[in-house]
Amino acid sequence: QSLQAERQAIAEKLQKELETLSQEQIAQMQKDIQDKGKDLEFLAGKIQQAQEETAQRVFSENGAAMQKIIGELIQAKQIKVLLQKNETILFSDPAMDLTDDVTSMLDVAASEANTQSE
Question: Is 29 within 8 Å of 13 (Cβ atoms)?
Fold first, then answer.
């Protein structure tokens, strides 16, 4: 947010003072704007990478339990087709979303595991 604010401030200053600035000052401000943009892209990439790594770690830690729970829900709800949430879907019935069910069952399984380990 700070980088974005700095970039925006430089762009606004450049726009306001364009007629009074030297060519060198204009070039430097444009370079600063580009540098801030590159920094923002780099940080966005790092954030996305961290999110992906976290999601992968969570899935690897809970994958077996999640697969078991999803299997139970597929049988209980007689599900014929199951898609990942990030897949492109033209239509879906919100009542078919299993996210809350899976989360609740994972919580129960984790609670039971904690109780057994104590």
Answer: yes
